[in-house]
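hey so u asked for the seq, here:
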Amino acid sequence: MIMLMKNDLKNSSSPYLKQYADQNIAWFEWGDLPFELARQRNKPIFLSIGFSSCHWCHVMSRESFQDSEIANVLNDQFICIKVDREQRPDIDQLYMKALVGMTGHGGWPMSLFLTPNGIPFFAGTYFPKYPGEDHLSFIELIGRISILWHKNQDDIVSMTSQVLEKLKDAYSVSDQPTYVNSHIKDQIDFKEGGLLGAPKFPQIKLWQAIFAQGILTKETDLVDVSFLTASNLCFGGIYDHLGGGLFRYSTDEHWLIPHFEKLLCDNALFIALLVDLYNYEQHDFLSSRLDQTVEWISNTLSEKGAFASSTDADSDGQEGLFYVWDTPELKQLLKEDYTIAKQYFNWNDEPQQILSTKHIQEETFEPAVINRIFYALESAQKKKVAPTVDRKIMLDWNALLIASLAKASLVLNKSEWLDMAIKCDLTCQSILFKEGQWFHCSYQQHVTKSCYIDDIANYIQAKLQLYLATSEAHFLTEAKELIKEAERFYDEDNQLYRQNPIEDNTLIVNPWSWDDHAVPSGNGMMAFNMIMLCLIDGDHEYRERWDALRQTYEKVVSDKRTCGQMISALALSQHGLLIKADWSKRPHDLKCSPTWLMQYSTNQKVICCDFNGCLNQVHGFDDLRSI
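ran it, structure tokens below
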């Protein structure tokens, strides 16, 4: 019996996949069925991976996937699978590794052509509908790939066996350490902040590590450039000056022109960085941006106590339309205030403008005039079509926010932020823990896909930060229970955590990573968690697991720039302190090495412990500062 092909995305639990549900392409979600059909019909698979706030995903959808001729060719010659990378980060990570290996670059949408066994033989990102001097049109490309499949299938299968071996090698652990690039400092842009070149990504975890290194080693240039980076993130065009929130990245090297999607994970990490800096030096711009960012998350992403994933880069079909202003529109809107606004935002004579105050931090403007300008812009923006919000709730991204809010509540004395974190934690437990199992994602009350190591690792950190903020023992107990859950992902032979549980063989390779991407790497965060638990609890098993992870990291990592979380773990293991005492009065008034200040007793004695043991008891702050 021949199964009729139809679009299978109408009932998807992913907001991103639902955007493709009305197309004529017979899209399948990832699962056994499309692969079985591909084998039965001897068809290659077209795999398209993207996410809801991705601008070029929308462009390829409009140009190609909604084209009836292209849809007919895809349906006739291929089995088509659509994947939401946020819902299935394991699939995204695996095939991104293949894409970069085959082409030398990555990005979204990811467009891959696979054998019926799931092994890629051709890969790319955005393919345009129309031909150019250096590329085919998309319909020409899929036509040639179809011919290639049917005429040279044996050669393709032979070639993909080599691709599979390279993927397996990429996720194996070498017996010999590879070169670890320790020259991150050479890549720092000391003029603009961030790393050299464009596009510029915030890379928050790396900057937390660089800042910590600067403090610990007294490298003032690293401390200064960390503040410079944060300042340009706060005042540049990469920040939404009207609504609040950090955009995904800057397309230029000056942090001025953003790519306009906003992700919960980026903003949760942004909060964490600003808190670290504010705990060192109390600058008003840091506390102001913290307030504005938390308010944006609360107002825009709030979802029944937890928080939604992102806002789109596009609105009304155009990238950045909600945030970009036409110059004639601004002149008419602001009237006599336009000249002041032009100076304040450093507008040029181009036809379109964005908001950036990166250049005027030391200048003085009349507050009443600036407030009037902002009010006019905010009022006009409310009349625009707002970007779509992806309402799915993801455990790892919410865990990042919980951890950041818990820490921020202590440093800035914001009890309402701690309440927000605790409520989010309870909501995550309510909707993402079902029948004894944790899930990665929930949308409209439906959970999808069991959790990944990134979920568990970041949720452990959230529980530990809640414990440190509240001294409530149940948070520490829950963190330890999650440590047990993480054992399902631990590869004893290679001494690291896999993305999926060890017994999960659904992908051609079960990936792992030390690299920080949208979220800190599961391995890096688990290493950090082990050190924290060792400091707090003293259990030697946490120390042994940390040692195993560190040794594996030293074997396999070739570039530290993408491993900020693990760098932070290494710094904590060498310099971390746990200070046990009665800290009922503003525990973060004390500045020292990366520190945990815990409720310990009601007497005046203080015990200072590092990763290797505890020092003698002392009395009060003055004695403690002398250690």
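Residues 578-625 form one domain. DSSP finds 22 helices and 27 strands in the chain.
lmk if thats what u needed
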